[in-house]
Amino acid sequence: IADLSPPQEKSLAQFRENIQDVLSALPNPDDFLLRWLRAWSFDLQKSEDMLRKHMEFRKQQDLASILAWQPPEVVRLYNANSICGHDGEGSPVWYHIMGSLDPKGLLLSASKQELLRDSFRSCELLLWECKLQSQKLGKKVEKIIAVFDLEGLGLRHLWKPGIELLQEFSSALEANYPEILKNLIVVRAPKLFAVTFNLVKSYMSEETHRKVVILGDNWKQELTKFISPDQLPVEFGRTMTEPDGNPKCLTKINHGGEVPRSYYLCNQVRLQYEHTVSVGRGSSLQVENKILFPGCVLRWQFASDGGDIGFGVFLKTKMGERQKAREMTEVLPSQRYNAHLVPEDGSLTCLKAGSYVLRFDNTYSLVHCKHISYTVEVLLPDQTFMEKMEKF
């Protein structure tokens, strides 16, 4: 094994000895073991603990046969990620077209386990492609490049169950696929990306953070520093096209899109709420949230029992006292929602600092009390990425 110091060679030999009982089940044992040692700074005990957990993960997910597994049709058609082309060193390139992804549609049409399994299948496909490239080029190809196209990223992508799925996948990726990422390249990122990244960064290692590269307005030219021009689709600024000339390379890169309702298996995803309150007949409930600086996102979800409920968002004009709706600035117009039939969720980018009031309105009902279950969160942008993006 090249590039190892004598102490590292000794650690590898000891690691091999420590896990003799599972060694025969590992692909390319020495290369595989080195990934784990490097990920945990050649800490033998930590590396062994994580590797043994990974072996359990391999059994649970049946990774030995996952490449033969076919995801449900809706996942194959609308989960916007694909392998397309290679960088200058032969590493495969994985594209994720985030902006056109429909997280709610997918989670209403397939199980969380199927969506996670499809992502793990992509990881195994990437490793298989690395193996093929190693054989083709006569050198080791061990890492991949990921390109995240965020054009069209919006508030719908902050839907809580969708973010929780992303967090779970990120955590599993760190634990089970160490040392395979060369760079994670972000293009066409809106300011909302700083909020999205802040929601998942705690599930990523510091090493992964360092590999995130955000490209600015000149991203098409900058991308050629990482990927050869003939391996980049025209859509991404260079020369690769379909045989029919399509610049998006639709047969190579899945662009996802809105999931048709004909695929839906259910009308709602089961949610858990942090608060349950009663809103008396002819009254309203105000839930106040302080926003310290612009760019934060308010995210909510609620359900009602006993009938529909009015809901709107307001910005207070006077601090320290309760105000009536007509005395505040209306940010999201109040309207009645059938939240007793289908739970509601939504989000709002706060353009100003101040006290935002989420108002549940039952003033129109003179007979029925309503029981409201709700969760409200303030999502903060990652300041480092906010500063980087403001320079573009």
From TrEMBL:
Q: What's the name of its gene?
A: SEC14L6
Q: Which organism is it from?
A: Cercocebus atys (Sooty mangabey)
Domain spans labelled CRAL-TRIO: 71-244
Q: Which SMART domains does the protein's record reference?
A: CRAL_TRIO_N, SEC14
Where does the record place the GOLD domain?
270-378
A cellular component term, taken from the record's GO annotations: cytoplasm
Which InterPro entries does this chain map to?
A: CRAL-TRIO_dom (IPR001251), CRAL-TRIO_dom_sf (IPR036865), CRAL/TRIO_N_dom (IPR011074), CRAL/TRIO_N_dom_sf (IPR036273), GOLD_dom (IPR009038), GOLD_dom_sf (IPR036598), SEC14/CRAL-TRIO_domain (IPR051064)
> Which Gene3D superfamilies did the record assign?
CRAL-TRIO lipid binding domain, GOLD domain
Q: This chain belongs to which protein, by name?
A: SEC14 like lipid binding 6
